[in-house]
Specification:
The protein has 180 residues and is α+β, with helices and mostly antiparallel strands. It has one domain. A hairpin with a 2-residue loop joins strand 1 and strand 2. InterPro entries: ComK. It comes from Parageobacillus toebii NBRC 107807. This is Competence protein ComK.
């Protein structure tokens, strides 16, 4: 179904191509507007429900992802969420996720950002689209950096584990070769 040139979906899962999930009112209902690299959709779900459903889809609960963020970088409020770390799907909220005005942004798609005179922030995405957020520049930068910290720590852990596995494989392989 189309409404005002937007495709309306009943459900949605965040992917690498998702840039932002914003609150959107349509016909008196509270939905989400999803901004993808190649288009925009209205989804008949609240933004937080899309985040939760996406976490479930990729094998973890939203609560589990929040607890993981706390364990890795110690953040408990307005925590960035590693929806699917292997595909670099990290999102962060602009304000408290319990606030219906909360916007969720994908970390990999933020290209640049700048403050406005009205204590807001303009975010430019990698595909040259932009959005105006009703959040201070300082708060936005803090959220962006927290997400970068989470991404870096999880990537380091995944790479260290991979190096250890490769080392163990080489050691076991060379021992087997020597015994023949």
């Amino acid at each position: 179904m189309k409404v005002n040139e937007f495709i309306v979906l009943n459900k949605f899962i965040i992917s690498r191509y998702t840039m932002a999930v914003l609150p959107h009112h349509l016909h008196g209902n509270f939905y989400a507007k999803v901004v993808e690299e190649d288009g925009e959709y209205i989804v008949k779900m609240r933004p937080i429900d899309i985040i939760k459903r996406s976490c479930d889809y990729y094998g973890s609960s939203f609560r589990g992802r929040k607890e993981g963020t706390r364990a890795v970088i110690g953040i408990t409020h307005k925590a960035p969420i590693a929806i699917e770390p292997l595909n670099e799907i990290y999102v962060f909220p602009t304000i408290s996720p319990s606030d219906p005005r909360c916007v969720w942004l994908s970390h990999i798609h933020v290209y640049k950002y700048e403050p406005t005179k009205n204590d807001q922030t303009i975010v430019y995405f990698t595909n040259e689209k932009s959005i105006l957020l009703d959040v201070s520049y300082h708060s936005f930068v803090n959220q962006l950096y927290r997400t970068a910290q989470l991404r870096t720590k999880l990537t380091e852990r995944m790479e260290a584990r991979e190096r250890k596995l490769q080392y163990m494989f080489r050691m076991n392989h060379s021992k087997g070769w020597l015994q023949q």
